[in-house]
Amino acid sequence: MKCYYHRDSDAVGICKSCCKGLCVACAADVGNGLACRNQCEKRVRSVNALMDRWIRAATFADRVARGLQQAFLALGAFVRPAVSLFSGWSSLSMQSNRRILPGFRISLGISIGYLCLMVILPLLVCVYKVTTLTSSQFFNAVWTERARSAYFITLSTSFYASVIDLGLGFLLAWVLVRYEFPGKRILDSLVDLPFALPTAVAGLVYSSLYSKNGWFGKVLVPMGIKFDGTNAGIVLVLVFIGLPFVVRTLQPVLESMDGDVEEAAASMGANRWQIIWRVLVPPLAPAMWTGFALTFARAMGEYGSVVFISSNKPYAEEIVPVLIVSRLEEFAEAEATGIAMVMLLMSFSLLMLINYLEWRSSRYAH
After folding, report:
1. Domain map (residue ranges) of the chain
2. Which of 95, 119, 302, 353 is deepest in the core (most CB within 10 A)?
3. What is the spatial distance between Cα 5 and Cα 11, in angstroms, rounded to a whole number?
């Protein structure tokens, strides 16, 4: 075979990229083969370098996974739940070796690495920041009268908004699943509007509508109904922000439920309330708890929409995120981090409680 570029020379190999015959003058050694000098050489070398990076990354992820497994094994010697958890992972790892699709350890390493970088590491930084305070300084920072008022306003408004979203979300999901009407797809797409709309824009819109000179405020304020600069306005924007969580949680469950069950209950003499409470609510209870938890957690951390419709007065309409921002503006980072840790612990406790209630309701439902 002759060289593709020098027809009078014999080829000593084939280019790895374009499969052309190459002589000694045209061939370049790229480590695992030959390539056309000054043409395919750079491309092949870049591909080889990229593959080397992927291999090194995969090797590093595998080492991280092995190290974490060994750490869980050492921890399991002292904590029994950790032993059972690790044994479950070990059996899953052994089963993955017999599967057709490989990559269990790499995938586990990447997942745990992402979890550590995005969740565990920021939490550890917060804990480290709080440790710079003494116990008395921490208590004085997180349990002042202003902080307690912010905790109460945040939790109460989030709870009220979640309860309202639970009722409205159930009704909206029911209408979207059980009925056919013109504009149904448009209404279904508008449910996701709070996900796409910046929360600051939502706060500006609601503040403009419900202010004293707004379209709705001109009618409601003379009647004594005021939303702008009140806790009711905070609940209003939180209802708007959290409604999609309830709807999108209940909608697939309602779609999986057969409508004949409701018709059978009606044919046996059940009224509408009995159908709702005895036929629909029991299988929907786990999804309703999930939607409530998602809405509540989202409302507790909301900031952008609340600052525009609320007056942000301390002891009156100030929520915890606003208090944290004010502490940061005062360069009291440790105090702000302490308040954030209190809210984090409260959120975790409430989510664990709601998840337990969800698990309990789903257990008795089956």
Report:
1. 1-39, 56-131, 137-365
2. 302
3. 10
Amino acid (1-letter code) at residue 28: A
Convert the pLDDT of each residue in 76-122 to its tens digit.
554 444 444 444 544 544 454 455 556 677 888 888 888 888 878 88
**Mean pLDDT lowest among 104-113, 173-182, 290-299:** 104-113
End-to-end Cα distance, the chain: 74
Query: CB–CB of 320/271 below 8 Å?
Result: no
pLDDT, tens digit, 9 for 90 and up, residues 237-286 = 999 999 999 999 899 888 888 777 777 888 888 888 888 788 888 888 88
Strands 27-29, 34-36: pairing is antiparallel
CA dist., res. 110 & res. 63, Å (int): 11
Q: Are residues 266 and 216 in contact, defined by beta-carbon separation less than 8 angstroms?
A: no
The residue ranking higher by pLDDT, 11 or 121, is: 121
Give the residue from 292, 299, 318, 294 showing the smallest Cα distance to 307: 318
Looking at the DSSP assignment, which residues form a beta bridge with residue 22?
A: 13
Q: Name the CATH superfamily for 137-365.
A: MetI-like (1.10.3720.10)
- The answer for residues whose C-beta is within 8 angstroms of residue 354's C-beta and 6 or more apart is 289, 292, 293, 296
What is the overall mean pLDDT for the chain? 78
Confidence band for 305, pLDDT divided at 50, 70 and 90: confident
Q: Are 53 and 30 in contact (CB under 8 A)?
A: no
> What is the per-residue pLDDT for 151?
92
Rounded to the nearest 5 degrees, what angle is found at the Cα of 52, between the Cα atoms of 51 and 58? 90
